[in-house]
Write a structure and sequence with these properties.
The complex is a heterotetramer of chains A (226), B (119), C (79) and D (489).
Chain A (H helix, E strand, L loop, with lengths): L1 H20 L11 H13 L4 H9 L1 H22 L15 H23 L8 H18 L7 H26 L20 H25 L3
Chain C lengths: L1 H20 L3 H21 L3 H25 L6
Helix pairs in contact in C: 1-2, 2-3
Chain D lengths: L5 H19 L3 H26 L2 E4 L10 E4 L1 H24 L5 H20 L3 H19 L5 H32 L4 H7 L5 H19 L8 H7 L2 H27 L5 H20 L4 H22 L2 H32 L10 H4 L1 H15 L6 H14 L3 H30 L13 H19 L2 H15 L1 H9 L1
Antiparallel strand pairs in D: 1-2
The chains are: A mainly alpha (226), B mainly alpha (119), C mainly alpha (79), D mainly alpha (489).
Chain lengths: 226, 119, 79, 489
């Protein structure tokens, strides 16, 4: 019964959406804002990756909101799981030597790769979120392979707070120098070089650390033995 | 053939949205419902990206000189989806932590059995 | 090209259906991760490398990992 | 010149900084939210006279709209941000003593972020940005509902989370369709072009967006989460959820329908839904034995009335709706705050357990009674002029449907009166013990309640204080052409 009703509802929704999809043909250019970003983006922001210039500069406020969402998730998860932490030290079966050594060898490489991804966010595909996720997966590897190791909670809190603060403070500096929040007040440099695009790489590095430490602390909170 | 060409991505996206909503509406296992939320998110993201696609387009990155900017796909949906992916994972993580706590209290993940409060 | 895309779309939908059918939640999570992975390949075909990267790293890998951690702390089989 | 972006950036920065401050000073988490919200209140009040003349449009990152996100600090936005800051400030003072157990530092961070999200929703002029701030609001309230860490808390949080997440996915699909149709995300830009496509293809995104926002705004078929979530959260959070979160949801619905779509044709349907919501809410509230669930259902009823008033869509109607919204916010926040300490002392949520509280906690009970009377609409409290304005607006339309519906709304008010008087009677006239020991709520909690009471009485006696602002807010919502012109220049 419930199944029939839900299928009926879903069919109504799907038919409705496909009706309005008729006006949105696939593969045809239909945007005016995006066109402006493509034509003017490199000149205006100095970043050759237009997606980065949209994420950090044109729609930077969304990104600020988005790191806030992740921050909320990390904090909320901690609040929800906080009371279970009864420190019963269970005898954890240690990982085999090969696994242990392999993880410890791979971990710095993954960190370097993640850092590379978010430092070059304004030039190549990738950026703070992707790099942060890669760093977090490095921490996941450490949790799985070297089970007795834990990241320091204070360090991860520090990275979260500082990442967010740097973002907001850079935004406010833009307000002070040019009258607009998140204004790109630094020199743009030559496009397609590492030191270009003004505040974009700085913000992406802050986001990278923030996202990495938040995802790592989410994993840390979830993995904690109960 | 041309039908597939113009609708393959839309079919994929709305298929995922449909399946995701179906799982959320009909399943009783909490983890299953959360998996449904994840599938729904993926479908919505795929839909947003396919709205911005241009046939035979290139990625919106000026990685080397001489790329024709006319052919570039729309960067805005890509930026939106980056945001949406991160929001999605935040919601999923929160939901899973709630599921863990509910399991500790009730010993089950069946939503039919977890029903203290009623209308 | 279009056949590859169609095949991937079909595979993705099959993965989604499988995720909804499997009683073993670990298998369901793996199927859902497959959906995310194929979606990230489709993102790449749609000329969105940034999103493809984010979906592969966050959607497929990390989400599957936190699901499996959560299942390990709850119950593996759906009743 | 005060920049409206400070209303969002400063609380956000302070919230990020709380873990840092907490390293040096343990109590920092407690005192930062009141400070940040006090700052917001001052900034909003400074902005208010300016925006009454001309809305302040601020673009983020320095390009012109629609190529960047812009904030629109019109009368509506600044009025709402002032209300959010005021209620948030008072409730955060109350929480200084009320929140003692659990992860208090995290509670305060989430609380501040919730209110920042709400401020962002009311100020932004970009529909995807609205979605992002809406998610901030929703996700922090999911986590806060579970803060009590008992069975009921987790259960209602997961219910709320699943329904909210489906709602926001629908919202996102709607936004995607709009982007596909118009190629822009700026609300004024979409509104300008909305007539260029056929109404049928606009209808689907509108339906999806209104449904998605309606989950948070608790419009009738979508509000199954509300009574559970509002009754199992800590009382300070219930006050915020009832007093701010659903109102912000309603604001978003009104903004989407009035400004973006300019949809006159679905307004009678919304008026009908509003009255349905009102009747369902009041009937369920009448049959409750749990006092917080009763208040939660009463919120549903009030939301229905506000939705009805907004759907009248005349200048009177929208003014009345906004006035009713303010009066509900003040009264319901007061009620939840008062109830918080009553159930803390009584040790039970049942109404019958509150017998004789009128003698044990006289001041708290007095505050409760004033809130209840105001909500029912008795003079000289704020509920009277606001309800009066709604009724007058409905009668002024001279259309049969609105007059019939307002009759039903008055029936709902009668039910509301019945159950509130029952509670007041239990508080004051039941219970045998002649002279029980007096133990009122602590002063830190009584001060915010006292300020609420003062506001309720003063605005009730002298409604002119707010009606000017409300009039210009109503005209901002109704004149979409002015909005478009002021944003796009």
């Amino acid at each position: 019964m419930r199944r029939a009703i839900s299928i009926f509802l879903l069919i109504i929704v799907t038919v409705g959406i496909s009706m309005s999809l008729a006006k949105i043909p696939f593969g045809v250019p239909k945007t005016k804002v995006g066109r402006h970003y493509i034509n003017e983006g490199v000149k205006e922001t100095g970043a050759t990756n237009i997606v980065t210039s949209v994420v950090v500069s044109y729609r930077g406020f969304d990104t600020l909101g988005e790191v806030t969402v992740l921050f909320i998730a990390a904090i909320g998860l901690g609040a929800i799981l906080s009371t279970v932490r009864n420190k019963t030290v269970k005898e954890i079966e240690p990982a085999s030597l090969v696994l242990y050594t392999g993880c410890r060898l791979l971990f710095p490489l993954i960190l370097i790769f993640g850092t590379y991804i978010f430092i070059h966010g304004h030039l190549t595909p990738g950026g703070g979120f992707q790099g942060g996720a890669i760093i977090a997966s490095g921490f996941l590897l450490i949790y799985l392979g070297c089970r007795e190791r834990r990241i320091s909670r204070i360090a991860s809190n520090l990275a979260e707070s500082l990442g967010g603060l740097i973002f907001v403070v850079i935004g406010l500096l833009g307000l002070v120098f040019g009258g607009y929040f998140l204004l790109n007040f630094l020199p743009k440099g030559t496009a397609n070089t590492l030191f270009s695009a003004g505040i974009i790489p700085i913000i992406y590095i802050a986001i990278g650390f923030k996202v990495g430490s938040e995802l790592a602390s989410i994993i840390d909170n979830l993995i904690e033995e109960s | 053939m041309s039908f597939l060409h113009s609708y393959a991505y839309y079919i994929g996206a709305f298929g995922l949205i449909f399946i995701g909503l179906y799982v959320i509406l009909t399943k009783h296992n909490l983890i299953k419902v959360i998996i449904g939320l994840g599938i729904l998110d993926t479908g919505v993201n795929l839909f947003l990206i396919s709205v911005g696609y241009i046939t035979k387009g290139t990625a919106p990155i000026f990685s080397r000189p001489g790329i024709d900017s006319e052919d570039m796909v729309d960067p805005v949906p890509q930026a939106l989806v980056l945001t949406a992916i991160v929001i999605g994972v935040a919601v999923l993580a929160l939901a899973l932590s709630l599921a863990i706590r509910l399991y500790q209290h009730y010993g089950t993940l069946n939503l039919r059995k977890i029903r203290e409060q009623r209308w | 090209m279009i056949f590859v895309v169609s095949f991937l779309v079909v595979l993705m939908l099959v993965g989604a259906v499988a995720a909804s059918i499997f009683r073993d939640l670990i298998s369901a999570v793996i199927a859902a991760a497959l959906v995310s992975l194929i979606a990230s390949i489709l993102f790449y075909f749609l000329q969105a490398p940034d999103v493809a990267m984010a979906e592969a790293a966050i959607g497929a890998a990390l989400t599957a990992a936190i699901f499996i951690i959560a299942i390990r702390r709850t119950k593996r089989y759906e009743e | 010149m005060v920049n409206p972006v400070l209303l969002i950036a400063v609380p956000l920065g302070l919230a990020f900084a709380i873990p840092l401050f907490a390293l040096f000073w343990k109590d920092a988490a407690k005192y930062i939210p009141p400070a940040a919200l006090g700052f917001n209140l001052v900034v909003s009040l400074l902005l208010l006279p300016k925006v009454l003349e001309n809305p302040v449009i601020v673009s983020i990152s320095g390009w012109r709209p629609p190529f960047c996100i812009n904030l629109v600090a019109g009368p509506v936005g600044v009025l709402f941000s002032a209300i959010i800051a005021l209620i948030g400030l008072l409730v955060s003072i109350y929480a200084l003593d009320y929140i003692r157990e659990g992860a208090t530092e995290r509670y305060h961070i989430l609380y501040l972020l919730l209110l920042t999200g709400a401020t962002g929703v009311v100020l932004t002029g970009d529909i995807f940005n609205l979605f992002v701030f809406f998610e901030i609001l929703c996700i922090s309230s999911y986590a806060l509902v579970a803060y009590t860490a008992d069975k009921a808390g987790f259960e209602s949080a997961i219910k709320y989370l699943i329904q909210g997440a489906v709602g926001s996915s629908l919202l996102l699909i709607g936004i995607g369709l709009l982007y596909g149709l118009f190629g822009t995300l700026n609300m004024a830009d979409i509104a300008q072009n909305i007539k260029s496509v056929s109404p049928i293809s606009v209808f689907v995104p509108m339906a999806l967006i209104v449904t998605g926002l309606g989950v948070e705004a608790a419009i009738f078929p979508l509000n199954a989460w509300l009574p559970d979530a509002h009754s199992s959260a800590p009382s300070s959070i219930s006050a915020i959820l009832s007093g701010i979160a659903i109102e912000v949801g309603l604001y978003a619905v009104a903004r989407v329908i009035f400004t973006i779509f300019g949809a006159q044709s679905i307004l009678p349907f919304l008026a009908f839904l509003g009255i349905l919501t009102l009747l369902v809410g009041e009937m369920c509230a009448f049959s409750q034995n749990n006092i917080k669930r009763m208040l939660a259902y009463s919120s549903i009823g009030q939301i229905g009335l506000i939705l009805f008033a907004l759907a009248i869509a005349t200048s009177y109607g929208v003014t009345g709706g906004l006035f009713q919204l303010i009066s509900h916010t003040l009264a319901k926040a007061l009620l939840f705050l008062a109830v918080g300490y009553m159930i803390y002392r009584a040790g039970s949520l049942e109404i019958s357990a509150l017998e004789g509280m009128g003698k044990k906690m006289p001041l708290t009970c007095l505050a409760f009674a004033i809130g209840a009377f105001s909500l029912v609409g008795l003079p000289p409290f704020i509920g009277f002029p606001s309800k009066f304005l709604v009724v007058r607006a409905a009668l002024a339309t001279k259309e049969t449907i609105f007059i019939v519906l307002i009759g039903l709304a008055l029936l709902g008010t009668v039910i509301e009166g019945a159950y509130f008087f029952r509670v007041v009677q239990v508080l004051y006239f039941k219970g045998e013990k002649p002279n029980p020991p007096k133990k009122d709520a602590p002063v830190v909690a009584l001060v915010p309640m006292f300020i609420f009471v003062v506001l309720i009485v003063i605005i009730g006696i002298y409604p002119k204080l707010v009606t000017d602002v409300l009039n210009s807010a109503a005209s901002e919502l109704l004149n979409r052409l002015d909005y478009i012109r002021s944003v796009l220049g």
